[in-house]
Amino acid sequence: MEYQLKFHPAAAKDLFKLAKNSKALGQIIIDNHLPKIVGDPLNAGRRKKGDLSHIFGYNFNYQRVSYRILYQVENDTVRIIALGVHDVAYKKAKKRREQ
């Protein structure tokens, strides 16, 4: 099944900020991590538990820092909810889950 990639408006800003701070990190996310998620979203990340049970989390490390890409899968769409450093990404996802 082919999935379509969409961004929560604030998640697009998250990606822009990460890429602005480190062009290499932004490029790695766009070239490597997002295609992995879109290619097989149900297996690329882990389904979260508790109040974020509708969200999947994809983990990766860059320069000894742990990053998360949090996303939802709805029908044939992968919607990126939040990107960022571990704790910050989860806080953003909790705020955005209602939007």
UniProtKB/TrEMBL annotation:
Protein name, per record: Type II toxin-antitoxin system RelE/ParE family toxin
Pfam families: ParE-like_toxin
Family annotation (InterPro entries): ParE-like_toxin (IPR031552), RelE/ParE_toxin_dom_sf (IPR035093)
Native source organism of the sequence: Candidatus Aquicultor primus
Top-level taxon of the source organism: Bacteria
